[in-house]
Every structure is written in structure tokens, then in C-alpha cells.
Amino acid sequence: QQQQQQRQQLQHRAYYSSTQEEESPPPLSLPEPMLRPRLLVCGRTREYRKAASSLVLPGDVALEVGCHEGLTTALLASRCGQQGAAIGIDRSAKAVAAAQSRFGICEDAGLPRFVAIGSNSGAGNAEPSFAESLASALASVLPQGRRAPTVAFLDLGGDALLPAVLRAVAVLDKLEGLRLLVVKSQELRG
Hints:
41% of the residues lie in helices and 16% in strands. The protein is α/β, with parallel strands linked by helices and 190 residues long.
């Protein structure tokens, strides 16, 4: 029954996002455990950033996989505040360098941290080894002596192939303490 309610909620959001570009859907009447879904799938960048600006709480530790040039990671950092942290990781060293150039290189609380992992080929349609690169890199990327991420955002590119997205979701889903996983994927949304 809970899965059916989640499916209905996703269908509700998909309908409203496709028919009312600028208007928010009316609030759904959901049981208490469903008020904050564990998995949220967004098909568009606008939906993805709206989730970042509305579902991340002060004090959260946010991880963005596929941070590209850092805009959403910076938004996450502003939402997490001084008590939290935001870490953006990407396979493209060029994208990470652009993010660091745009937002600075800083590991202080409340400011984004950007890290390149794996190859320099870009995240786009990630190769099968991406999930392995992600899993091995998370241990060194996550802040030492701080709690694990409470929210994770995944953006491999809106047109990323479904198997690559699902492999990355499986890796992120194993993070202990994760209360929310937001995925931007046109293929998973469709």
C-alpha cells in the first residue's frame, strides 16, 4: 500500500509538472511517514533545484553526485548552513575546477566542497565502472569525524542511461542515515 501511495504521488507530481510549468501542485494528503519521501525523482533541472531549496534542512549533510559546475551544490550548502555541509562530486575534473573557480575552494561548514572522482570523461552516460568509482570514493570524500550524509542528490545528466542511474542509486541507497535521495533522470521519471 505504501508503494502504491508513492507511485500515486510521483504520478501526481509528473502530471502537474507537465501541465502547469510555473504552478506548484496542490499539497497531497499523505500518511505521516510519506510526508517526506525517501526517494524523489525529478525529470527537469527546475524540479531538482526546487527539491534542493525546499527539502534540505539546516544542519543536513548534503552530497551531490554529478555536481557539474556546482550551482546546486552551492544551493545545498546555503540550505545546510553552518551546522551542516555540502559536498559536490563529479567525474569531470574540468567541471570540478569550474565549480571551485566559481564558488571557491573551501571546506568550512556552510560552504560547498567540490571533489573530482574517477576519470575525466564526464558523468553523462556513465560507464559501468562509475558505480564502483563512486563507492570507493565516498569513504575519502565524506567529512572525517562528521556524520554521514542525510540527503543525497544525483544528477548524471537528465539523459543518462537508466542502468547507470540505477547503479548510482544503489550505491547511494547504502549510505547509513540517508533520509532522502533526489534523482534527476528523465528516463527514470518517464
